[in-house]
Amino acid sequence: MKNSVLGRAFGEEAVSKDAKYVFQTYGRQPIVITRGQGALVWDADGREYIDCVAGIAVNNLGHCHPRVVAAIKEQVERLIHTSNLYYNDLQPVLAEKLAKLSGMDKVFFANSGTESIEAALKLARKETGNKGFIAAEHCFHGRTMGALSITHKEKYRKPFEPLVPGARFVPYGDAEAIRNTMDADTAAVILEPVQGEGGVNIPDKDYLKEVKKICDKAGVVLIFDEVQTGMGRTGKWFGKDHFGVQPDIMCVAKGIAGGFPMGVMMATDEMAKAFGKGDHASTFGGSPLACAAALGTIQAMEEEKLVERSAEMGEYMRKQLEKCCKQDFVDHVRGLGLMIGVQLKKDGNSLVAPAREKGVLINVASDTVIRMVPPFVITKEQVDRVAKVVGELTL
């Protein structure tokens, strides 16, 4: 970029400066990504990759989708940020759109998935007056203290204990375990309709319906964490739509704004009444710029039928992976839409580097599942190449 005000660091310079000045909390791969378009990204050396990580299920529309870029450009010249001390002209438009798409009633704007989870936990406690939460084994809900408290994996939790008290974990997919774990102090049950970080775990079709019945009977709030499954990732607008269940509270983030940071917590009218003025807030939540990005994202998804494309390309990708992945360490392929897991029989983390060297970016969840969450705009030719590369990997 000529005459750029940005002082960029490339290649070895970026890596060395990162080591010197940035907290070393990420296990980064040794490439510096500098550009993206559609389902492709390029590194500082000009090498091209098919991106099946998509910012960890964020870039649903692909990189730099023209509709999102145009929405951001238009808004950035009008107003970037004000504050929630005032109304802005895009928040109510986006809230109405999200409410109609989701079947929920009220929207709280945040900046990330973990922030939306924190809002949901507070709302459930305020509504019920109870303190306890039930979550599922292998779940992931975030890394802030409240969200971390209801995240199952010990390696995330242990170094930061004591956490927020009151969380208990039950096997995912076992509704009776939830019934048997509830007590008089249970505020909410929180579940992912499909577990993402846990390894693309899909429940039986009646599981969420049964959990909803149990919660309703006990007067316990049901929260769906749709941070990863929302916004078309599973081939429907929301993961819950596969199961015909409407929660009391729902959290969405990742793909909601085309790569721009945003999270939302949505709730029923009755549930939303529990929050009064001052009960929760966010300085940056629902900024004009974030709302513009989200509205551009939704418009593109509707105009280009990208939710339907997620379903169609997801089915195609699963079939291609099943056809190509015949290695003795591969167990099976599963998924909904473009949220796909290749189940391995042993640790697969060592597969990431050779796939990258062959031009495909992949991610391994829970050590034994290759998680595929590419942009919805990925082409069949790109899927074929991905399946071929993954099918040639060795352990």
Automatic annotation (TrEMBL):
Oligomeric form and interacting partners: Homodimer.
Q: Recorded E.C. number(s)?
A: 2.6.1.11
One example GO MF annotation: identical protein binding
Q: Where does pyridoxal 5'-phosphate bind?
A: G113, T114, F140, D225, E226, V227, Q228, T283
Q: Which residues carry this modification: N6-(pyridoxal phosphate)lysine?
A: K254
Describe cofactor binding as the record notes it: Binds 1 pyridoxal phosphate per subunit.
The name on file for this protein is Acetylornithine aminotransferase
Q: Which residues bind N(2)-acetyl-L-ornithine?
A: R143, S282
Signal peptide (from-to): none
One GO cellular-component annotation of the UniProt record comes to: cytoplasm
Q: What is its main location?
A: cytoplasm
Q: Where in the cell is it found?
A: Cytoplasm
- Please give one Pfam family short name: Aminotran_3
Q: Which UniProt keywords apply?
A: Amino-acid biosynthesis, Aminotransferase, Arginine biosynthesis, Cytoplasm, Pyridoxal phosphate, Transferase
What HAMAP family does the database record attribute to this sequence?
Answer: ArgD_aminotrans_3 (MF_01107)
Q: What family classification does the UniProt entry report for this protein? A: Belongs to the class-III pyridoxal-phosphate-dependent aminotransferase family. ArgD subfamily.
